[in-house]
Design goal:
Shape: globular
Number of helices: 11
Largest sheet: 8 strands, parallel
Order of helices and strands: EEEHEHEHEHEHEHEHHHEHH
Structural class: alpha/beta
Strand order of the largest sheet: 3-4-5-6-7-8-9-10
Amino acid sequence: MQKRTLGRTGRDVSVIGLGTWQLGADWGDVSEADAMAVLDAATESGVTFFDTADVYGDGRSEQLIGRYRAAHPELPLTVATKMGRRGEQDPGTFTLAQFREWTDRSRRNLGMDTLDLVQLHCPPTPVFSNAAVYDALDTLVEEGAIANYGVSVETCAETLEAIARPGTASVQIILNAFRLKPLDEVLPAAQEAGVGVIARVPLASGLLSGRYSETTTFSPDDHRSYNRHGEAFDVGETFSGVDYEEGVRAAREFAALVPEGVTPAQAALAWVIAQSGVTTVIPGARSPEQARANAAAAEITLPVGFADAVRALYDTHFRPTTHPRW
C-alpha cells in the first residue's frame, strides 16, 4: 500500500484509509464481531489510517478501535477522531474547557494518552475564523492531550480559512466524482501550505458503487433513509448532497466508464487518490470483502481520458450553477 505524509502531522499513512462511521451503527446495526473483522481485513490489506468521531454510535466506534488497537499493539496505526458535535452547535461552546472534556472522553474510548489527530467536526462557520479556538487547540497539543489537530468541513470557504492557520495539520473534505468543487482552490491551497487532505464520502454514500437503483430502500436507522434532505445533519454527508434519483442515473454513466476488471467503487476511489494534493481517502466498509476491495483500489491505474469523462459527467448532472449549495 502506497503511503503519503499527512500534512503537518509528519505521519505517513496509507492512501486508502478506513472511515468508521458505520461501526457506530449509523448505517444500520453492525455487530462487534463484524466490526473487528472489518478492521482486520483493512489492516491485512495495508490500511494504516482509521478515521472516527466521538459521536459515531455515541463513542462506540472509538471504543471498538480502542479495543482493536489494544489487541494489536504491533500495528503502525494512525487514528484520527473528531469532536464538536456532542453539544449544541453554538460557536460560544467551542472553548478550551469543552475541548478538554471532549478529548478526555475520546482518550478513554480509544485507550490513548495522546490522540494522534483530533479534528473539529464540521462546527458552525464562525468557529473557523475564531483565533481563540486555534489557541485552545494549540494548548491541547502543548499539554500532550493531542499530537495534532485538523478540521472536518462542509464548505470550501471553511476549508480555506482553516488552511491559513499555522497549526492546522489536515483538513477533511467531501470529494468524489459527484463533488468536484474542492479541485479548484482547496487542493492547491492545501498543497502550498503543506496541509494534509483527507477525502471523505468518496462513494457518495454508496451511489458510486453502482449497486443502487431508483427503488433501492435502506433501513430506517440508516442515514440514507432519514437524512436525504438534511433532516438530521448536513445534507452533503448523505449521497454527497445530490438528488438521489439523479445520482443513480449519473452512477450508471460512471459505471460505463470503468475499465474491465475494476469495480465502479474501486474506480471512484482510484480517481480520488489520483487528485494532486489528496493524502488519503476514507471509504467505509461493512464487511471484510468491502474492506479488501477498497484497499485494492490503491493499485489501480485509470485509463487515459477517465478524468475528462468524469468532468463531463459532473458538468452534465451536477454543475454548480444548478446546485446553490456550492
